[in-house]
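I'm curious: can you give me some protein's one-letter sequence along with its backbone structure tokens because I've never seen that pairing?
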Amino acid sequence: MRDFKATRAPESNAKGLKLRVQLLFSLFLLLLGVAFGRAVQLQVFEQEKLRGMAQDQYVRQIEIPARRGDIFDRRGTPLAQSVEVDSIWVDPSMLPDVRQASRSLAKALKVDADELGARLARSKRFAWVKRQAKPQEVAAVKALGLPGMGFTKEPKRFYPQRELGAHVVGMVGMDGKGLEGLELAFEDELSGQNSRMSGFRDAKGRKLLVQGALDPLERQGAAVTLTLDRHLQYVAEKSLAKAVEEAKGIAGMVVALDPKTGELLALANHPRFNPNTPESIARGTVRNRGALDTFEPGSTTKPFVVATALEEKSVTEESVFFCENGAWRVGRHTINDTHSYGWLAPRGILQVSSNICMAKMAQVLGREMMVAGYHAFGFAERTGLALPGEGRGVIPFPKAEVSLATQSFGQGMTATAVQIAAAYGALANDGVLMRPYLVSKVVDPDGVVLLENRPTEVRRAVSAKVARQVVGMLESVVVKGGTAPKAAMEEYRVAGKTGTAQKADPVARGYSDKRIASFVGMVPAEDPRIVILVVVDEPKTDVYGGLVAAPAFKEIATAAMAHLAVPPSRTVAPGVAMAAATPVPVAAKPVAKATEPARPVLEEAVSESPEAGTVRVPDVQGAGGREAVVKLLAAALEPQVMGSGRVVSQTPAAGSLVEKGARVTLELATRQ
């Protein structure tokens, strides 16, 4: 029998093999296509991204801080400069023992070890150890030999004159940005342009500079030149500090300007601060009160009312006003003078600073004209100084009669010290108000002038004739019989005005017993070269501007005349007698000298009239026991005496409004 299985031919595998080969080829072709597509994607579409990622591994953009521009006074003396100092950083990952390293670094740098250790523990690859370190601190850290330490140069602001002009110049923060004063106002101009440059880093992450150092001029800020004079600024700050400390005041201001140009030659504040040591600056001392703060100026505004009245021909130099012998009722209020006066002309009103006669002159002038006169002299408008936050001041329209009266002698309105000085500058400049300015010019490193201020006339406040008349009247203030004989100078004629203003109490919505004492004057009076305003806030020993501020004015003016090489006045003005009217039927009381010592308790310029059944406690301070008792009994009050000798204290205080028959306790003591 035949075996068919043995005789059948085997089937060919060629077909299956071919199929497998095709499948493998297609797979390889697909993989090759994917690889090619991926290569195209990486090389064409993601080329820039990958190049950036690669460079990020070894290339770093290093930011080079710009050198801040310098600030100079008018004669080129530097007030603020920038120097290169080392800042210390560390890579915490390279420290073998972070805690031990923190203690060593803290000991070398005299910083808190716990705070430094916590900062290093929070960081992985970079942490500041101390920025803007001193050279000896850098040397101490290098001597430790710790791994991972780095040192980089940073610009640090340095103030070579220390406290001098600090309120004007201002200060910068640790990041080099302006915080106060001109440093803040001219931040864009002073800061310059930070530069970036490429650098490689090695395997340890250390930066290697591959480009040459940039030209410092390309990244330096502009230079700012001021109108301040370093010498006059020093004298002003020294004299102001002496005046404030002797009067036991809380603060003070001085403004000195050239009336013909408006240039501020000195702008001083007290207390002072050193911008080189920001950690030791007391809070509130960095504010430039002279330019920014507004306050009620008091009697220093009286010459502007007189000038406006003369300009409008509401009064003449011969016009006379009756000063009511020291007290004048206006509605519910009483206007008071410090002494009792009778009939006075404008010269006499300014000489003895009569509030009552000034209020009567304001009535003759009228509300609209008085307010317009203040505006003409630059009040209630910003002067345009380059300082942020400059005060404007306000002059409310005086609808009430008492408001008209108080605004005539500088109460119920506010102004800045610079505004007051500029207004006196208008009188000194034959009636032309000049715009006060502080910055002379701003120049970038290549010499291009970015800003330049020049003398600018704002407006004519009054005619030249009226301005000279008022300046002549103000000369009577500094002679015997005036309120400020301590401001008189032997070789120069001086014209000026005192001010003793009550400070407003915002809580009680009235006036407190605190005062602002001031004196503003111009010298030489016949052709003024400088106007100087001195303000002492809350003096306690004496409170009158003629006693507190006038001596400081004289010191500054004496130094200024020598520094500016002003020749002495040809003729020193003789004592100017108080102008009196022709005989009138009403007898005037003798004029008390304004140079009498200030009493501990002042009579308010404006007081509310007592109601029926009430009386004001008389001032018996310093009086003998018998005399004090007689005064209290005459005032319908019951005295209670403790001790013997003279009265050293009284309760309630003098001037208090109490019911008739109230008890007043007097403490007496014998002087040792």
